[in-house]
Amino acid sequence: MPENLPTAPPPTTLSRSALERGLGRAAELQAQGGDDDSGALTEAQLIDLAKEVGLSPENVREALAEERSRIELAPDTTAGVSLLGGATVQAARTVPGDLARVITGLDQWMQRTESLQVMRRYPDQLTWEARQDFLSAIRRTLRVGGRVFTLAVATDVHGVVAAAGGGRTHVRLVANFSTTRGQRVTAAIVASVAGVLVGVPLFWMAMNANLPLAAVLALVPALAVPMAAISLVRRQYRVLLARAKVSLEQALDKLEYGDAPHRGI
Q: Taking each helix axis from N to C terminus, what angle separates 43-52 and 57-68, rounded to the nearest 10 degrees?
């Protein structure tokens, strides 16, 4: 056998992270190429492919469940975004239990613990809103059980569940505070306008009376009140969202750990 024949190069190996990046980039290129869904894979085929490249089927099923539970939110272009920030809070987790058990437990928690009621119901989704009856209002006002019932001031709370395989379910919760945010933006604007309406006339009168020091002091309401109002409203709104995040996580804690004690917020 001739000795000058080229030898085959050693096989190229890829790390797990490089492999995942490569698969993700290939999917992007296929999408950019305008390929239709004629070559789409079923979940079983995708799991088989994952096995071939060394990915855990359990992780693939969980990733697919996360994708099925993804909620597409419309772009938020209102003035409230720049003033206070986003209007939604999310929490997601994979918990033990089948779809029926998880969605039933989630509904019970929201109604009994968060003072909510079902607004819309689907096989794998639920949307809640605050209870409007008199007893529920009293319960929230008195903070029965030591809870603040933060989710009760949300416009709505949406929950989506998706089977993750192995007796597990992925849950995604989204609380929407667009109405509350709008109310707080309005309050900040009203306070700011009030400060201007008080300060500007006083400034004008002081200038006409040739009282420069009084004129400067007259500008304090026009400048300080808007700044203080916006700062206060922004701080309170961020606290509200933080509490809402904890409330959503507590609902997931209940699904994952059962009747473990929780603290009121």
A: 140
What confidence tens digit (pLDDT) does each residue in 106-135 have? 999 999 999 999 999 998 999 999 999 999
Q: Show the tokens assigned to 232.
A: 């206060």
- Alpha carbon distances (Å) from 194 to 23, 99, 145: 58, 53, 39
Residue-averaged pLDDT of the chain? 82
- Give the Cα separation of 239 and 91 in Å (integer): 16
Asked if 180 and 154 count as a contact pair (C-beta separation under 8 A), the reply is yes
In whole angstroms, how far apart are CA 119 and each of 105, 192, 241?
Answer: 17, 36, 22
Distance, CA of 96 to CA of 99 (rounded, Å): 10
Is position 243 within any domain? yes
pLDDT at 207: 82
Helix (H, G, I), strand (E, B) or coil at 128: strand
Residue 255 lies in a domain: yes
Average pLDDT over residues 176-198: 91
More confident residue, 218 or 261: 218
Q: Which two tokens stand for residue 255?
A: 């699904």
The reply to whether 166 falls in a domain is yes
Please write the tens of the pLDDT for every residue from 21-46: 666 666 665 566 655 555 566 667 66
Residue 57 lies in a domain: no
Stretch (H or E) spanning 94 = strand 88-96
Number of domains in the chain: 1
d(CA 249, CA 92): 8
Q: Do the Cβ atoms of 156 and 128 come closer than 8 Å? A: yes
The band of 104, judged by pLDDT with boundaries at 50, 70 and 90, is: very high
Domain of 200, in residue numbers:
78-265
Opening angle at CA 81, ends 80 and 82, nearest 5: 95
Residue 50, SS3 per DSSP = helix
